[in-house]
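Example complex used in Figure S2.
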Amino acid sequence: GQQVMQIPQYQHVQEGEDFTTYCNSSTTLSNIQWYKQRPGGHPVFLIQLVKSGEVKKQKRLTFQFGEAKKNSSLHITATQTTDVGTYFCAGITSGTYKYIFGTGTRLKVLA
Amino acid sequence: NAGVMQNPRHLVRRRGQEARLRCSPMKGHSHVYWYRQLPEEGLKFMVYLQKENIIDESGMPKERFSAEFPKEGPSILRIQQVVRGDSAAYFCASSGTEQSTDTQYFGPGTRLTVL
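Predicted assembly (226 residues):
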């Protein structure tokens, strides 16, 4: 079945350092969404990417969708303590409505 | 402008009891998804429902688990004869359409603990 893997599983960074998480799907995706979940909280929608090679920015966050639409990345510039949480990608294949969530990357930011 | 509501937020059950988890989708949304999240893990799809219809329950265990979304009232995820392995956070999400490009909005979750 379809699998969506994320690396790394955990990342500790000093405040001010950059952070990147990578998402890889075993199948071609029609679109991908990214979510952030704070400890004890629920997933909060960040962004959706639909087009091959698409790049979107939200302040210090940059999202990319690979040319083959099988991988994606989230890059955070100059992390802050408010960035702490687990970042999930969720991909969906054409003709389905079921998002497959990645394994998540847990980010800790050390002040 | 209420978001997705779930109750209870925390539920404690003893082995063999029944657990009922409720989800009220965002106003105007008629599509509901249930996910399970084990500690330190990602979200696993369980079931997708529209009003009065189960569209996809491929992620739901065959036994003890059932879900419904009646014409009136919240969606309910029911777990019969709970076991310790059912302890997890259960999230529901709603969307306005079945389009894959539609955003799913998550509720705060129900954290089930089975003693």
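The two ends of chain A are 41 Å apart (CA to CA). The mean pLDDT of chain A is 93.
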